[in-house]
Design goal:
By secondary structure, the chain is of the alpha/beta class. It contains five helices and nine strands. The chain has a nine-stranded mixed beta sheet, with helices on one face. The radius of gyration is 16 Å and the shape is globular.
Amino acid sequence: MRITEIFCSLQGEAREAGAVTTFIRLTGCPLRCRYCDTSYAFTGGQWWPLAEILAEVETLAAEYVCVTGGEPLAQPNAIPLIRQLCDAGYRVSVETAGALDIRPVDTRASRVVDIKTPESGESARNRWDNMPALTGHDQLKFVLCSRSDYDWAVEQLAALRLPPGCTVWFSPSHGEIDPTQLADWIVADRLPVRMQLQLHKQLWADAPGR
């Protein structure tokens, strides 16, 4: 597999935010969201055998493992990697842009699926047929750039029929929307979502490998 980096840090987003986590960042992504903060993972990387990836994860010794990118599901061997991580007893999450089929991903992993808003520039790539495949163990994320993105996300959320336990996150695009304002909108509308800020950006800005 082509890997940009493997490192241990704190999870900055979603359900395991704040937990010590090993990150496996795969190289390559078919999307070009305008707010992407991991564009350094679009190209380059090193080829790693699956066994060496698993050995490195064991060496880093974190209970949680996050498979991310780029877009991890763009590499077919991400599927056996995720399965073997689950077999080894790790608690696994998979961060995916939502443009590729999530159904082959081991459901023991928590699939964190982005819904791309209009201002991401990639909303046409949303794969809505992923929605029926979500389980209560999975998570859905909307990264919002403006009030119009927020209104669009509220409309999409109302149309979805998500399984109980599936967490929905609303996140402000860093530097584009005031987090306090987003919080006020969520409270005013009594939305059944959770707001998140990117913990790693508050701690380490955009430093790779953190």
